[in-house]
């Protein structure tokens, strides 16, 4: 038995911070080790001293590092003890350093951005693909098979290729890969994510909508008809590319409803809800652009099934998420606010009685760039590679 002091150690379910632990046997880092912490013992398959932080075990390639979700991956991985970035790509900004494109990341020790066509994947183990939909499928098709991939674009989210082609207005060039892709709404498909090679990371609106609705639909607590979803997004949801519609003068001091009746997230939302219901569900969905940078709220109006009460809805969500680290049902009556999840991987939700008997109102909030994109992507890659799901994701919300 030996004694050591760690700043942090990780074990199967999370982290222990600062403290003395006694280690019964240690031969190598991946060995099963017994820790004694304050009299209790904890079994671990992987442990690491924080002083080893720079010797990262997994080499990450980040495609689309010069965009918002790419930058967010860099920010999150800055605190990840096991994942180190060894390759970053950009398109127009290829040849530049990360610090020159995103000065807030100047302290990160990263290689220069290269174009995807010049990227060498031989010393990469896993890839985050933060590229525009439509361009992604051809790039992923060309990647070596040894790579684990989390794709943040919409290219592999829809199982039905014809539906993709209809809603995205272009042919799909990698239908074979689509068959192996796992839709990575982590809390709902965790078991499938574990064994996936390619994960299609959900869209931000679909994440905020499916997390509350899937458990209620599975438990048959709400009717499949008349689901009305009104969502609001911060402008970073549209990416960093210059667009007239996203100019400050177009966004500030106003709200803009867009994609009315035809937003491309409709089939993704309906796919997830229909899977939960095991029958086709159609929804009314309208997204809005808000004069804020980050954040997303979905306000969802539903009809409760015959005989179901508000208490049933609340208790079902409590049961579904009581052990989840990143999805929180708030105390009764507390209204979720985008401010309360900013910069974090949390989804906060709650359910309220409507004034009209038999109807309920659900509100869920996320940070579109974290749980709605890069945070959930990291949660998925942690699972795919057998690390604790929360690794690198323990940021508290940034408020005010
Ligand atoms: N922003 C958000 O909140 C969310 C975004 N997503 C999805 O994640 C993906 C990335 O989004 P986001 O980071 O916001 O987008 P950005 O527009 O901010 O970044 C796009 C990135 O892709 C690169 N790129 C553009 N075109 C090409 C191309 N033809 N070949 C190779 N690289 C290219 C850009 O390089 P360069 O800058 O050098 O031109 C940039 O690095 C998108 O599919 C988006 O829909 C998903 C959920 C939420
Ligand atoms: C504000 C804004 O423009 N948001 C984006 C959604 C971002 C996202 O989650 O979507 P994808 O990953 O499917 O692109 C939009 O409405 O297209």
Automatic annotation (TrEMBL):
Domain annotation Semialdehyde dehydrogenase NAD-binding: ranges: 59-196
EC number in record: 1.2.1.38
Catalyzed chemical reaction(s): N-acetyl-L-glutamate 5-semialdehyde + phosphate + NADP(+) = N-acetyl-L-glutamyl 5-phosphate + NADPH + H(+)
PROSITE patterns in the record: ARGC
Active-site residues, Swiss-Prot/TrEMBL: 204
Keywords, in A-Z order: Amino-acid biosynthesis, Arginine biosynthesis, NADP, Oxidoreductase
One GO MF term attached to the UniProt entry: N-acetyl-gamma-glutamyl-phosphate reductase activity
Pathway: Amino-acid biosynthesis; L-arginine biosynthesis; N(2)-acetyl-L-ornithine from L-glutamate: step 3/4
Top-level EC class as recorded in UniProt: oxidoreductase
Superkingdom assignment: Eukaryota
InterPro entries (alphabetical): AGPR, AGPR_AS, AGPR_dimerisation_dom, AGPR_type-1, NAD(P)-bd_dom_sf, Semialdehyde_DH_NAD-bd
GO biological process, one term: L-arginine biosynthetic process
Family membership noted in the UniProt record: Belongs to the NAGSA dehydrogenase family. Type 1 subfamily.
Protein name: Probable N-acetyl-gamma-glutamyl-phosphate reductase, chloroplastic
Organism (species): Gossypium tomentosum (Hawaiian cotton)
């Amino acid at each position: 038995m030996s004694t050591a002091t760690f700043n942090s150690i990780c074990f199967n379910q999370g982290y222990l911070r600062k403290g003395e632990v006694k280690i019964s046997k240690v031969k190598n880092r991946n060995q099963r080790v017994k820790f004694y912490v304050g009299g209790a013992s904890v079994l671990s398959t992987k442990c690491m001293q924080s002083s080893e932080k720079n010797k990262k075990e997994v080499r990450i390639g980040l495609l689309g590092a010069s965009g918002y979700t790419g930058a967010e991956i860099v920010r999150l991985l800055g605190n990840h003890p096991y994942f180190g970035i060894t390759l970053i790509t950009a398109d127009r900004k290829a040849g530049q350093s990360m610090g020159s494109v995103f000065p807030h990341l100047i302290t990160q020790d990263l290689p220069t951005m290269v174009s995807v066509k010049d990227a060498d994947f031989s010393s990469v183990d896993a890839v985050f693909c933060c590229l525009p939909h439509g361009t992604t499928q051809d790039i992923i098709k060309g990647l070596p098979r040894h790579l684990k991939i989390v794709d943040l674009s919409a290219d592999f989210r829809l199982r039905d290729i014809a539906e993709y082609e209809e809603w995205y207005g272009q042919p799909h060039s990698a239908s074979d890969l689509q068959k192996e892709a796992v839709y990575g709404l982590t809390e709902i498909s965790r078991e499938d994510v574990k064994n996936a090679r390619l994960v299609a990371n959900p869209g931000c609106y679909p994440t905020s909508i499916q997390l509350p609705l899937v458990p209620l639909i599975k438990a048959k607590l709400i009717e499949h008809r008349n689901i009305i979803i009104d969502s609001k997004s911060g402008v970073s949801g549209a990416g960093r590319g210059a667009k007239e519609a996203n100019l400050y003068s177009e966004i500030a001091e106003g709200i803009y409803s867009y994609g009315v009746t035809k937003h491309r997230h409709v089939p993704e939302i309906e796919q997830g809800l229909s899977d939960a219901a095991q029958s086709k569900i159609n929804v009314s969905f309208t997204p809005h652009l808000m004069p804020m940078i980050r954040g997303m709220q979905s306000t969802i109006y539903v009809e409760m099934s015959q005989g179901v009460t508000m208490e049933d809805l609340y208790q079902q969500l409590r049961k579904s998420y009581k052990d989840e680290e990143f999805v929180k049902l708030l105390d009764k009556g507390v209204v979720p606010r985008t401010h309360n999840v900013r910069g974090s991987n949390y989804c906060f939700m709650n359910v309220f009685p409507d004034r009209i008997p038999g109807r309920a109102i659900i509100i869920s909030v996320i940070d579109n760039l974290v749980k709605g994109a890069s945070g959930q992507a990291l949660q998925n890659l942690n699972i795919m590679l057998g690390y604790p799901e929360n690794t690198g994701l323990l940021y508290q919300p940034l408020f005010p």
